[in-house]
Structures are given as C-alpha cells and as structure tokens.
Write a structure and sequence with these properties.
By secondary structure, the protein is of the alpha+beta class. The chain has one domain: Oxidoreductase, molybdopterin-binding domain (Sulfite Oxidase, Chain A, domain 2, Alpha-Beta Complex), CATH 3.90.420. It is built from four helices and twelve strands; from the N terminus they run αββββαββαββαββββ. The chain has a five-stranded mixed β-sheet with strand order 4-3-12-7-8. Strands 5, 6, 9, 10 and 11 form a five-stranded antiparallel β-sheet that branches. It has a two-stranded antiparallel sheet with strand order 1-2. The longest helix is centred in the N-terminal third of the chain and has 22 residues. The structure holds the ligand Nc1nc2c(c(=O)[nH]1)N[C@H]1C(S)=C(S)[C@@H](COP(=O)(O)O)O[C@H]1N2 and molybdenum atom.
Amino acid sequence: MSRRVFCEFRRVALGLVLLLLSAAMPALGQTSATEVEIREYEGEKLGSVSSFRENSIGGVQTIDPSTYVLTIDGLVSVPLEFSYDALQAMLHEDRLVTIYCVEGWSVKALWTGIPLASLFVLTGPLSEANTVVFTAADGYTTTLPLSVVLERNLILADHINGIVLPPENGFPFQLVAEDKWGYKWIKWVTRIELSDDPTIEGYWESHGFSNNGEVGSSMFGD
Ligand SMILES: Nc1nc2c(c(=O)[nH]1)N[C@H]1C(S)=C(S)[C@@H](COP(=O)(O)O)O[C@H]1N2
Ligand SMILES: [Mo]
C-alpha cells in the first residue's frame, strides 16, 4: 500500500469509528438535524415537544453550553460549579413522566437527565438543609422540599423523547418535578441553593399558587 493510500485509508477508518461511536451513544451526542423524537416508549404513546405551550415569564432563553455554569450552593459542605460538559459526563437516568400545567394542558414524555441526588452527593447537604431553591436564566425561581427531591429521585433533564432539550423546553436543563404542577418544572436552571427556610416562595408561588404544588391537590393557597 502506498503511503498516500494508507493515509486515506486511516482517515476513512477513523471517520467510521467516530460515526459508530456517535451512533452508539445517542444520549451523549451533540444536537443534530437528524435527531428524531421518539413518540412511543414501552408501549406508551408520548406527547411531542411541539405540544407544549411555551408561556414563560421572560420568553425563551438561549443558553450557550460552552459558557453555561450550574451553581450548587447555600447549605452545602462544598459549593460547586458544573460546566455543561461535566454534567453530560454524569450518569443519566430515564423517567416516563407527565407534566401538568395549571392552565389545563398536560404532556407525557420520556425525560432523560441527572438525578439531583448525585449532585448533592458531591456537594454534601448540611444537616439543617430542608429546602431546595432553584433559579433560572430568566430570573424565574421555584422551591421544593429536599425530602421530595431525594425520595422521588428527581432528575434535571437534558433530553426529552430522546432528543436534546430544545431551547423552548429549557435547554440545557429542566427540572422534572414529578407529581408537582408545571410551575415547579423550572427550565433553564442555573442555580440550586440549599436552604433551611421552607417558607421561601418561588415566582408563581408568590403570585398565589400553592407552595406545595402537588398535582391532584389545590393549585391555590398554602
Ligand atoms: N425558567 C422558567 N421555567 C419555567 C417557567 C418560566 O416562566 N420560567 N414556567 C413554568 C410553567 S408555569 C410551566 S407550566 C412549565 C411549562 O413548560 P413549557 O413552557 O415547556 O411548556 O414550565 C415552568 N418552568
Ligand atoms: Mo404553568
């Protein structure tokens, strides 16, 4: 084999290996035009990303993953900042969960993301921490009891129905607040703060919606 042919062969082979690798790891791959939403999972029909009604307080946020930072601080042993790439490298889990907005619509989807518990293992919550305060790029906030986050093993989703979360759905991360009203499903999450004050109210909670926010119980008051 001539040197030129060998080099060409090596180039093609390398390209092929990279192609196979990216095909084998769809969850870790970058967004591409060829990504297609899955619409059925374990025999259950899924809603589409296009069936969401985007009505966020400040409109769709565009976040650059190369400069994105997720801060975890407050009542933790070690405050930490995570880059997008560092978060992509963490173990991801799937959840088949329906989001219910107080406006009356709902979407069942397959969410893939990082269990918050695995982030808290790294920062170590202090023993007096009982509340998780989430903040987003649009200034939106919401809270959940730490016990709910841990017992339900809630995830920060970066994929929906097998595709990278679109900006409208909160890229890079939306909290999958299983069994809580849609206003607890904060999008474009940038900060997670542990607190010992369960009375802190997020954006919609301070505008009259229930701080408990459990689906099935009243959406107003408390
Ligand atoms: N950052 C941020 N997250 C948010 C909101 C918002 O205004 N800003 N709205 C919430 C509400 S009220 C609902 S019902 C869900 C809706 O998700 P969707 O906008 O993807 O449909 O997002 C929640 N997360
Ligand atoms: Mo909502």
